[in-house]
Amino acid sequence: MLQVTINGQSREFPDGYSILQALHRIGIDIPAACFDERLEPFGGCRLCLVAVQGMARPVTACNTPIADGMSIETHAPEIEQERRTLLRLLAQNMPRHSVPAKEFYGCLREYGLESAMHGPAGAVDDSHPYIRVDMSQCIACFRCVRICADVQGQFTWQVWNRGDKTEIRPDSGTTFLESSCVSCGACAHTCPTGALVDKSILTHGIPQKWTKTTCPYCGVGCEMNVGTRDGRIVQIVPVMDAPVNKGHLCVKGRYAYDYVHAEDRATEPMIRTSTGWKVVSWKEAIAATAHGFTQALREYGPGAVGVLGSARATNEENYLAQKLARVVLGTNNVDSCARVCHAPSAAALKMVLGTGAATNSFDDIEQARTILVCGSNTTENHPIVGARIRQHVLRGANLIVIDPRQIELAEIATIHLPVRPGTNIPLFNAMANVIVEERLYDQDFIRARVAGWEDYRRFIQEWTPESVASICGVEADLIRRAARFYATAKPAMSVHGLGITEHSQGTLSVVSLINLALLTGNIGKPGAGVNPLRGQNNVQGAAHMGCEPNHLTGFVPIDAGRELVQTVWQAPVPKYKGLDLMQMMEAAEKGSFEALWVIGYDILLTNPQADRTLEAMRSMKFVVVQDMFMNETAREAHVFLPACSSMEKDGTFMNGERRVQRIRRAMPPIGNSKSDWEIICAVAKAMGHGRHFEFESAEQIWEEIRKVWKVGAGITYARLDHAGIQWPCPTEEHPGTRILHEGAFQTGARAALQRVEHVPSKEMTTDEFPLLLTTGRSLFQFNAGTMTLRTPNVVFQPTDYLDISPDDAGRLGIVGGEMVTLRSRHGAIRITVRLSPAVRPGEAFTTFTMPDVYTNRLTGPEVDEITHTPEYKVTAVRIEKE
Ligand code: SF4
């Protein structure tokens, strides 16, 4: 520790602090207009000047390190005088404005210098839906420019001209909306003046209360502070010391919250009658739900009823959803949307390594020398992870991108392998071939921790890059180079998305990716591992809590977990095999599945073959939908139960790196809506199972989860108060686990290499259907669009677009903006064409957000052979001019 005297008082600080950090630590505030803890100190504004004994001139506190024996004076009269002069100079060109909550105006007030602002008012750029730009209030601290470059990696804000003429403008040179901005909002958050400001606080006022919670969108799990005023969300800012997002958020987390207050929020329970929906009391809705399921059970038995948990609901709520299915309905027919995304990742990781979850953490990104991004448009779909990868690559790490499209990360990649959709296995096998043939494998690791080496070595011989190049559409030389980087520039970490899993061989694709990690020893180490990027906020938790037909809480196979769970529940766990979502729909079509409870999940818009899903829904005798909105699925229901948003309740989410984090109620439930767990308990009680559902808070449910989930037993609400914890965490003394498989695998000392053969997709292109369509998400719209379509994000993406290459457009005589019919073997939709150089000729891409486009009318019946995850990523289509 270093001994430092500050304003006459002796203090101790650890080595490595700057003077400003030391002052902050002991609660001394001095002006520092260009300082932001997320950025390298800059010393540009010079307001943080302090006097240091023995130094001829005052020094800037932000970039001067403390030293042992240093004596610092922070508010000496000559220092204060200099600050006042500097503040006056900065303020003199500003118009007489004051934007609440912006620190620079507070400074001027403190120094009695508000009258120093006498510059002319400037032009306001109001083009952006979330941020107002008024550069007449700019003091050229460059925080916006630096945070855009150094945290987001976007370089949208740029410095134009020099000296007195210095101006900060967006890279468009025109309006902010027309710039390259990705609307992460970091610039408005850091700007100390009214130059860049969140419009929401200008419209609704500054927050009266802040609540720390977790983002309701993607599986990255960013922590945020939600600011409310008069029961309404008026601003969201990142938690500065959050382990995942470290003071940053993306456009969805920071700004896309208006769905909470949307006018069409469904906040009353309803029952469908012959004349339409009728608003009823909660008592009637619960009674109707209990009656519908009781009748279905009596007439058709437990094999004909099921429950779908929700990636939008908490761990506690998903736990209760599967408990209700098993205890009250007596069925294992329970599933969640993990079925349609990363079920193959969980299955493959569990099968080969023994634990069905990401092996490493997001903090490993900065430790990796090479990052392999496969089938993931990370900067759009997991933006904070994307920004961290981007920053790391800009600082010198190697990046290999495997993706059919020239996605944003491909632009900065060391190597981009533009793989043909559906050919990941031959590509991974060819990389393995190079690693084996060129002896780039990790001999020590294989000797100690890998089984099946000789057999695999023989198997992989024939998978040369040359033999797969034409199948994958990737040059053999590129495959060789990628394999060499991955195997030699270690540690190498892979992150993968649905471009790997949503295929007819999704699980085996992940297995062949795990083979690469085993061969090269890139597992059980910092900066390495195999890491699925989970799509929705709590999709990892939904399946992990037991919304899974074959697994109980903790992803424990039913037979292995039965005894413990039955002891805790004091109720039997059904014996027969349950149906997953796809099997439930098939059974409904065949007339052997009759009642379904869908919680927070628009299956009609997101399941493949939407027309068949609709038929299946309509053939059921009883459907209950529990949601915030009357979505497409809800329109087909018999009972609608209004659920509140995550901003209105307590509980926990589990992010994609196994981290359990708190969500907290920032405002009371809107209208008559209730938490999902309260609704589930009410129905269980109405069906005579009250004693198994005696819960009065989310924490009480969590306490029961700890009893059945040994691996998470050490996680308590008290421990989660400060920050999330990554499981395994078996005891309250355990710190949580950042990296899995460090010494051994869950399956034993060794994990086995697997022979993976390639079976081509049945969705082949033909003369009749010559284009291969893949579907996915985008930065501004999220999944079914239920939430983001009710926010100003529609300004950025108002509809689903069909992205095709300019070459194909030219050949077909189509121009950007043209409406076309897109037809597959399974259906047709109308959609607007957008020309995209990121898409290769012969391929196409679209999102599945809009009910009035209904992309999933096109997708087909093929599913992953192991998990039944649909093959969303390969659909042969043709474009018809209208
Ligand atoms: Fe939310 Fe994901 Fe964006 Fe983070 S990256 S703010 S979790 S949507």
Quickly list its features.
37 strands, Ubiquitin-like (UB roll), 6-stranded mixed barrel, 882 residues, Rossmann fold, globular, 29 helices, 5 domains, binds iron/sulfur cluster, Alpha-Beta Plaits, alpha/beta
Any chance you could write out the topology, listing elements then pairs?
Blueprint: E1 2-6, E2 9-13, H1 19-25, E3 49-52, E4 59-60, E5 71-73, H2 77-91, H3 103-110, E6 131-133, H4 143-152, E7 157-160, E8 167-170, H5 186-190, E9 196-198, H6 199-204, E10 209-214, E11 223-229, E12 232-238, H7 251-255, E13 270-273, E14 276-279, H8 282-300, E15 305-308, H9 315-328, E16 334-335, H10 343-353, E17 370-374, H11 378-381, H12 383-394, E18 398-402, H13 408-411, E19 415-417, H14 424-437, H15 443-449, E20 450-451, H16 453-460, H17 465-472, H18 476-488, E21 492-496, H19 498-501, H20 506-520, E22 530-532, H21 539-544, E23 551-552, E24 556-557, H22 558-569, H23 581-590, E25 595-599, H24 603-606, H25 610-619, E26 622-627, E27 639-642, E28 651-654, E29 659-663, H26 676-686, H27 698-708, H28 717-720, E30 725-726, E31 751-752, E32 771-775, E33 801-804, H29 806-812, E34 819-824, E35 828-835, E36 843-846, E37 875-881
Parallel strand pairs: 1-5, 15-16, 15-25, 17-18, 17-21, 18-19, 20-31, 21-22, 25-26, 26-27, 32-36, 33-35
Antiparallel strand pairs: 1-2, 3-4, 3-5, 6-9, 7-8, 10-11, 11-12, 13-14, 13-27, 23-24, 28-29, 29-30, 32-37, 33-36, 34-35, 34-37
Helix pairs in contact: 8-26, 9-26, 9-27, 10-20, 14-17, 14-18, 14-20, 17-18, 23-25
The structure holds iron/sulfur cluster.
